[in-house]
Amino acid sequence: MQLRAKRFLCALLAFIMVLGMIPAMVFAADGTTLYLKPNANWKVDGARFAIYYWNSSNNGWVNMSSIDGSIYQGTIPSGYSNVIFCRMNGSASANNWDNKWNQTKDLIVPTNGNNCYTVTEGTWDAGGGTWSKY
């Protein structure tokens, strides 16, 4: 009888653990991953990168992480298509306008599958760029 109870409890625990992972998996899949290819100007002085996103009722920030030293990625929540890629002060961890060094112009995320914004070489603030597929 004890062996049966142990097996049942182990199976129940495994089932509960799997159920506990479902919201995390759903949340991780919920959103739009965007990529940034900063120009040489943007990469100097220990800069880091973030995305500011907004819609008609809310806004927020998300950090970007390096994929390979030349491309950075960040995931914005679903429901947001307005973004600004920002070059941030690398010694400050908070994402806010006081820690922003440079930024793109206001952008609308394309709906054609393009998800990587390349900042035009030689530019700093709102200097332009192009969307492509990563």
Write the layout of secondary structure elements.
Elements lengths: L1 H28 L2 E6 L10 E7 L4 E5 L1 E2 L5 E5 L5 E7 L11 E4 L3 E2 L7 E4 L9 E4 L2
Parallel strand pairs: 1-9
Antiparallel strand pairs: 1-5, 2-3, 2-6, 4-5, 6-7, 6-8, 9-10
Tell me briefly what this model is.
This protein is of the alpha+beta class. It has 1 helix and 10 strands. It has a 5-stranded mixed sheet with strand order 4-5-1-9-10, with no helix packed on it. Strands 2, 3, 6, 7 and 8 form a 5-stranded antiparallel sheet that branches.
List its salient traits:
134 residues; alpha+beta; 5-stranded mixed beta sheet; 1 helix; 10 strands; 34% strand
Structure write-up:
It is a single chain. The protein is of the alpha+beta class and 134 residues long. 21% of the residues lie in helices and 34% in strands. The chain is built from 1 helix and 10 strands. The chain has one helix spanning 2-29; strands at 32-37, 48-54, 59-63, 65-66, 72-76, 82-88, 100-103, 107-108, 116-119, 129-132. The protein has a 5-stranded mixed sheet, with no helix packed on it. Strands 2, 3, 6, 7 and 8 form a 5-stranded antiparallel sheet that branches. Strand 2 (48-54) and strand 3 form a beta hairpin. The longest helix is centred in the first third of the chain and has 28 residues, at 2-29.
